[in-house]
Amino acid sequence: MPKVESFTLDHTIVQAPYVRVAGVEHNGKGATVQKFDLRFLQPNTDSIPTGALHTLEHYLSIFLREEIEGLIDISPMGCRTGFYLVVWEEHPVSEIALALHHALQRVLEQTEVPAATAKECGNYKDHSLFSAKEYARQVLSQGISTDPFDHSRLIQVD
């Protein structure tokens, strides 16, 4: 059976919110892809409702692309406690954590959800700007750690 990295993480001892490297893949042609775990909520304790998660996904898809070179994708976790971020090349955790901080600050300033029409979105009725702002505010108030097991290692915001 193939090894799934996230299944090897002890979800009972991590301390959200945090950003961690969840994997690095190199192919034979020199390409490198890195995956990050952007954990907003404590696993098995809480989960982000789908409307908030979907709205955060729309905002993070835009704002993180403006902050991070080589962003391939950002997708919500099935457990609804955060997102996976996939990038070309290797990036320091601190860079990704700071970019997430900046993106969440921008979410708080928004007045409408981007790409939230039937033409642009596969479930355009399932959004909640109010809830997305509440979860962004919660993560920002707790601080984003660069160590999933030590929440005292918070990013330094410029």
Give a concise summary.
A hairpin with a 5-residue loop joins strand 1 and strand 2 (32-39).
Calculate the terminal CA-CA distance, rounded to whole Å: 44 Å
In what range is the share of β-strand residues? 15-25%
Count of β-strands: 4
The parts where pLDDT drops under 50 for at least 5 residues are none
Number of helices: 4
CATH 4th-level superfamily: S-ribosylhomocysteinase (LuxS)
Q: Could you tell me the radius of gyration in angstroms?
A: 15 Å
Mean pLDDT over the residues:
96
Helix content: 25-40%
CATH architecture: 2-Layer Sandwich
The CATH C-level name is Alpha Beta
Shape, principal axes of CA atoms: globular
SS-derived structural category: alpha+beta
Number of domains: 1
CATH fold category name: Gyrase A, domain 2
Question: Could you explain the architecture of this structure?
Answer:
- A four-stranded antiparallel β-sheet has the order 1-2-4-3, covered by helices on one side.
- The protein has a single domain, classed as Gyrase A, domain 2 (2-Layer Sandwich).
- The chain is α+β, with helices and mostly antiparallel strands and 158 residues long.
- Helices cover 32% and strands 19% of the residues.
- The protein has helices at residues 5-8, 50-67, 93-107, 129-142; strands at residues 18-26, 32-39, 71-76, 82-88.
- It is built from four helices and four strands.
- It is globular and about 40 Å long.
Secondary-structure topology with pairs:
Blueprint: H1 5-8, E1 18-26, E2 32-39, H2 50-67, E3 71-76, E4 82-88, H3 93-107, H4 129-142
Antiparallel strand pairs: 1-2, 2-4, 3-4
